[in-house]
């Protein structure tokens, strides 16, 4: 491997920041902030050639592979690479990190050094998980992410931080440990060797084994997504986490779950995927509707946004399980959109929270008069979150619904569409209550509008909202070949298995849930 | 009367034990002349002894020597375990002086006793005769009974010593009875010969006497490794014993118990694999679950770690149940990692504790991170390793143990194991919650860090993190040291 190890440098650069931070005295908070900012910016800059140099084909690119553990029966490699599925998630991570750090410039005043260390470690974990092509390596990064996030919520969080942090940790841990068992089982079923993910793709497992292994993987990912009914940790974690924590949680960490489905659960266990598609479609739709309904009655803006996350990720899952190009690319795109829009929403919540130290909707009203710039930005982000045409949210949602209409999940898409309406209701209603009406609360009458730093950190997000809304082609172009390959892979293996008299009907849709095809 | 042929005596296979015993005896003598406030010198001397012994042990790697007509065998398996024992002994010595000065109980016997206990453990690891193993066990146990009750002024320590003695003696009875029955059935106490005898006379395996013999030995060993339901002594003894001794007991003797247990079961009874696998399966599940569940609501951190150490014995039993190279190598790797992470954690408990075993509650750690960020970080690393989070040695160890079980087809056992790990996270996180997320209740200004303790913590952190990130080398060694 003579080429420059771009991926490794990008992944581990934040670690350098951690090391440097150790040597900065405890009190020099501004140095901590600057240093973390510079390191994450540098990581972003280094990740740019990854995006530009990425060829639009289905191959893994920038691959690095070095033997790591070769003792005894197991062989683990340090094996990383990027394809169309991971590239934008990697970019989203490196892009959102400097923004997240900039957002806590004044919000976190205590233990800034430790805070920045946690954020940087988190970035290493996230990037590592997205680029790992070795299952064992992936698992390590996947678990490592938990620790800094746990501290971010638990140390710098709100009133109920400890409860939220522990809940977050234990929920995720339970899921991922079962995944570990399935992962090792998969390894032995594949006849040993190394933990190369691409090799595991080719292992043909019998459907019965696939079933429970898929469930173990899916549980880990579904908790992370989070899918109904495993979502209860999310509102707690989101509400208690400091702004940067919420932003990263929403923008990147939740994508780990959906990414896990696309990268691992579905291609590794195609038959089980077919078998469980109805289940996951049902759960996604329940997630969309239920979370929207719950969001509607929230009194806390941040909780409302948190529940809207659950609903949005329901769309992603629906698109992913539609398992056609529109659905999948819609799902992938929606992952990015959610990262941008909901990330931005959490930043906005952070802005008003920093000013008023409350997030209750009833404490606000008429802010638009006092903070016109803020109101404009808020409006744009709200509309993008609803999926207004011309913003990023629209493209993703549209593709997801299109994809699922064209797949077996047609009827789920019909129900899911109503979620779009509900989203408009709760978001606009919230916006109206916060921004319009009488400015009668005296505390709100003295609020200052956004400062240059705050506008500055919103600008890249606003830019992306419109750019992806108007011209999503470059994003879709780079991901399509990989997604196509994935679909072919999963589908071909399903039909290959369907000939085995394991499943009597090639289509694994139980008639109970799916109305007969003629009825449309 | 039949004459007993006395074999030619070759000291080579027991050279490390001899050296360490000589050091121990010498220390006993020196102890008399050292004034009580300078007992630290005894510590340095014993460290020297441990280092020299360690070098002798290491020279035996890949050069197995057997002696005393097959009653002792120093193979890689023994060498690996001996390193664990010497390491636990050494780390314990490092934290002992600090503790006993604080408790104003400067007893010099501590160091020779530690060395003798280590000698006992080493004999257990290289014993290939039931009698040798028993001998080693007794040398270890008698020293431990005294060490547990070493803090004479402290009632709890007295209780610990007495309780340990009574229950330990009881368990020894089981073990010895089991050995006697096995001897009665096979006519030999040599581990290899037992297996040979079964292979030649297949019917013996069905002999109830023989089976009960194995069962009773398993019970005896289960006492020693604190496997449920024979774990009852652990929490009281661990809580009452002087903290450095608790650290020592949870790492060294437990590993020694596993060494002897494995040697006997794996070598002597391969014919009964189905039986002992089933037995160990139940033991593992009980041990993990009971240990973890009770640890969940412990307020005293020593008690919590005592119950957690029961759970950890359970994880090791998972690898044992598998009975394959992955599982056994996993036990070796895990025992070594456990020595680092547990003694490291106890080193911090020694630092935080106050005279009279005070300040040992989890809530006493409130705000620890604010005052001592580096120590808190070290503690967090140990706890994460105990919880089995990557990138620590604890994770790699558990990975090996559980994958051994998965490979052998014990998937349910592995699932119960990981669910237990997940449950255990809760009580480790509790300490972390107090350290990092609660406001300080007390000023930790009085806390002083002494050089040996700092050294112990540093070694432990390195021992947890380096194999966690680069486990290849250590795994390879563990792989070469397995019995199968």
Automatic annotation (TrEMBL), chain A:
InterPro entries: NADH_Q_OxRdtase_chainM/4, NADH_UbQ_OxRdtase, ND/Mrp_TM
UniProt xrefs under Pfam families: Proton_antipo_M (PF00361)
Subcellular location: Endomembrane system; Membrane
Keywords assigned by UniProt, alphabetized: Membrane, Transmembrane, Transmembrane helix
Lineage top rank: taxon: Bacteria
Molecular function GO terms recorded: NADH dehydrogenase (ubiquinone) activity; NADH dehydrogenase activity; ubiquinone binding
Main location group: membrane
Any one of the GO CC terms: endomembrane system
UniProt record, GO biological process: ATP synthesis coupled electron transport; electron transport coupled proton transport
Chain ranges passing through the membrane: 6-23, 35-54, 85-108, 115-133, 139-156, 168-190, 210-234, 246-266, 278-297, 304-323, 335-353, 373-391, 411-431, 452-471
NADH:quinone oxidoreductase/Mrp antiporter transmembrane domain sequence ranges: 132-421
Coiled coil residues, start to end: none
Membrane-topology annotation of the record: Multi-pass membrane protein
Matching PANTHER family: NADH-UBIQUINONE OXIDOREDUCTASE CHAIN 4 (PTHR43507:SF1)
Family (UniProt): Belongs to the complex I subunit 4 family.
Protein name in the entry: NADH dehydrogenase
UniProtKB/TrEMBL annotation, chain B:
Top-level EC class: translocase
GO biological process, one term: ATP synthesis coupled electron transport
Any GO CC annotation of this UniProt entry: plasma membrane
Entry EC number(s): 7.1.1.-
Residue ranges crossing the lipid bilayer per the database entry: 14-34, 41-61, 77-95, 107-125, 162-183, 210-234, 255-272, 278-297, 329-353, 374-397, 409-429, 449-474
Pfam families listed in its UniProt record: Proton_antipo_M
Substrates-to-products reaction catalysed: a quinone + NADH + 5 H(+)(in) = a quinol + NAD(+) + 4 H(+)(out)
Membrane disposition: Multi-pass membrane protein
Keyword tRNA processing: no
NADH:quinone oxidoreductase/Mrp antiporter transmembrane domain residues: 128-421
GO MF, one example: NADH dehydrogenase (ubiquinone) activity
Keyword Translocase: yes
Cell compartments where the protein resides: Cell membrane; Endomembrane system; Membrane
UniProt keyword annotations, A-Z: Cell membrane, Membrane, NAD, Quinone, Translocase, Transmembrane, Transmembrane helix, Transport, Ubiquinone
Quaternary assembly: NDH-1 is composed of 14 different subunits. Subunits NuoA, H, J, K, L, M, N constitute the membrane sector of the complex.
The family this protein is said to belong to: Belongs to the complex I subunit 2 family.
Protein role: NDH-1 shuttles electrons from NADH, via FMN and iron-sulfur (Fe-S) centers, to quinones in the respiratory chain. The immediate electron acceptor for the enzyme in this species is believed to be ubiquinone. Couples the redox reaction to proton translocation (for every two electrons transferred, four hydrogen ions are translocated across the cytoplasmic membrane), and thus conserves the redox energy in a proton gradient.
The protein's name in its UniProt record: NADH-quinone oxidoreductase subunit N
Originating species: Geobacter pickeringii
């Amino acid at each position: 491997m003579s080429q420059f190890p771009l991926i490794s440098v990008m992944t581990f650069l934040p670690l350098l920041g951690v090391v440097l931070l150790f040597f900065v005295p405890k009190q020099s908070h501004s140095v901590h902030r600057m240093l973390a900012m510079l390191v994450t910016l540098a990581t972003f800059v280094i990740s740019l050639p990854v995006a530009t140099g990425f060829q639009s084909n289905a191959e893994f690119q920038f691959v690095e592979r070095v033997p790591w553990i070769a003792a005894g029966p197991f062989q683990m490699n340090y094996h990383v690479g990027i394809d169309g599925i991971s590239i934008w998630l990697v970019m989203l991570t490196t892009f959102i990190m400097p923004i997240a750090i900039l957002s806590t410039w004044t919000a976190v005043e205590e233990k800034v050094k430790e805070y920045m260390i946690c954020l940087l470690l988190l970035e290493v974990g996230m990037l590592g998980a997205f680029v790992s092509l070795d299952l064992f390596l992936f698992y390590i990064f996947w678990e490592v992410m938990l620790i800094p996030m746990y501290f971010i919520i638990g140390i710098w969080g709100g009133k109920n931080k400890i409860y939220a942090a522990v809940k977050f940790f234990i929920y995720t841990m339970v899921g991922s440990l079962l995944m570990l068992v399935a992962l090792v089982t998969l390894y032995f079923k594949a006849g040993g060797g190394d933990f190369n993910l691409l090799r595991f793709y080719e292992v043909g497992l019998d459907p019965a084994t696939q079933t429970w292994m898929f469930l173990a993987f899916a549980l880990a990912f579904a908790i992370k997504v989070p899918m109904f009914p495993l979502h209860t940790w999310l509102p707690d974690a989101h509400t208690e986490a400091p702004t940067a924590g919420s932003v990263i949680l929403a923008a990147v960490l939740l994508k780990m779950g959906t990414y896990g489905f696309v990268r691992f659960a579905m291609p590794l266990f195609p038959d089980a995927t077919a078998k469980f598609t109805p289940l996951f479609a049902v759960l996604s739709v329940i997630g969309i509707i239920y979370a929207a309904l719950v969001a509607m009655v929230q009194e806390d803006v941040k909780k409302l946004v948190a529940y809207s996350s659950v609903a949005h990720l329901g769309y992603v899952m629906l698109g992913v399980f539609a398992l056609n190009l529109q659905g999948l690319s819609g799902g992938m795109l929606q992952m990015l959109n959610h990262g941008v829009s909901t990330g931005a929403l959490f930043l906005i919540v952070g802005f008003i929270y920093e000013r008023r130290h409350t997030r209750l909707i009833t404490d606000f009203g008429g802010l638009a008069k006092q903070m016109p710039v803020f109101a404009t930005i808020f409006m744009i982000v709200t509309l993008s979150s609803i999926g207004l045409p011309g913003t990023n949210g629209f493209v993703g949602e549209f593709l997801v619904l299109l994809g699922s209409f064209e797949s077996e999940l047609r009827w789920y898409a019909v129900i899911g569409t109503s979620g779009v309406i509900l989203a408009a209701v709760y978001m606009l209603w919230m916006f109206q209550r916060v921004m319009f009406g009488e400015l009668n609360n005296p505390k709100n009458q003295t609020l200052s509008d956004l400062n240059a730093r705050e506008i500055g950190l919103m600008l890249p997000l606003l830019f992306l909202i419109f750019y992806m809304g108007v011209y999503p082609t470059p994003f879709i172009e780079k991901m399509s070949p990989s997604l196509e390959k994935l679909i072919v892979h999963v589908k071909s293996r399903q039909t290959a298995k369907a000939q085995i008299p394991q499943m009597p009907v090639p289509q694994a849709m139980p008639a109970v849930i799916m109305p007969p095809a003629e009825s449309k | 009367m039949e004459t007993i042929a006395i074999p030619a005596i070759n000291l080579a296979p027991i050279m490390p034990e001899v050296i360490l015993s000589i050091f121990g005896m010498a220390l006993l003598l020196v102890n008399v002349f050292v004034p009580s406030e300078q007992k630290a010198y005894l510590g340095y001397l014993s460290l020297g002894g441990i280092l020299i012994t360690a070098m002798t042990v290491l020279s035996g790697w890949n050069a197995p020597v057997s002696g005393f007509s097959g009653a002792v065998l120093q193979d890689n398996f023994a060498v690996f375990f001996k390193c664990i024992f010497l390491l636990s002994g050494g780390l314990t010595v490092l934290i002992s002086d600090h503790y006993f000065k604080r408790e104003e109980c400067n007893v010099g016997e501590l160091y020779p006793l530690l060395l003798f206990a280590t000698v006992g453990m080493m004999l257990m690891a290289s014993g290939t005769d039931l009698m040798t193993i028993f001998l080693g066990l007794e040398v270890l146990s008698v020293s431990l009974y005294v060490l547990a009750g070493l803090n004479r002024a402290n009632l709890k320590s007295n209780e610990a010593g007495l309780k340990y003695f009574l229950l330990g003696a009881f368990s020894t009875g089981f073990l010895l009875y089991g050995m006697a029955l096995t001897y009665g059935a096979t006519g030999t106490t040599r581990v290899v010969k037992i297996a040979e005898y079964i292979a030649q006379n297949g019917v013996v395996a069905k002999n109830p006497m023989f089976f009960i013999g194995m069962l009773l030995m398993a019970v005896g060993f289960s006492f020693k490794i604190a496997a449920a339901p024979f774990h009852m002594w652990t929490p009281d003894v661990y809580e009452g014993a002087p903290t450095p001794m608790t650290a020592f007991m949870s790492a060294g003797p437990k590993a020694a118990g596993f060494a002897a247990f494995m040697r006997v079961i794996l070598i002597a009874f391969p014919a009964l694999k189905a039986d002992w696998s089933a037995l160990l399966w139940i033991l593992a599940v009980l041990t993990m679950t009971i240990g973890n569940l009770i640890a969940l609501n412990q307020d005293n951190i020593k008690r919590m770690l005592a119950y957690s150490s029961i759970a950890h014995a359970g994880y090791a039993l998972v690898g044992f149940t598998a009975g394959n190279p992955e599982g056994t190598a996993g036990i070796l790797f895990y025992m070594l990692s456990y020595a680092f992470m547990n003694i490291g954690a106890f080193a911090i408990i020694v630092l935080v504790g106050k005279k009279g075993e005070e300040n040992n509650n989890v809530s006493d750690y409130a705000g620890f991170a604010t005052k001592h960020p580096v120590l808190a970080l070290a503690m967090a690393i140990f706890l994460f390793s105990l919880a089995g989070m990557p990138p620590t040695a604890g994770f790699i160890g558990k990975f090996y143990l559980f994958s051994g079980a998965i490979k052998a087809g014990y998937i349910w056992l592995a699932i119960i194991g990981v669910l237990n790990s997940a449950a255990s996270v809760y009580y480790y996180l509790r300490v972390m919650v107090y350290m990092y997320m609660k406001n300080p209740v007390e000023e930790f200004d009085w806390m002083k860090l002494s050089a040996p303790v700092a050294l112990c913590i540093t070694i432990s952190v390195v021992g947890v993190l380096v194999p966690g990130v680069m486990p290849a080398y250590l795994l390879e060694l563990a792989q070469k040291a397995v019995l199968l």
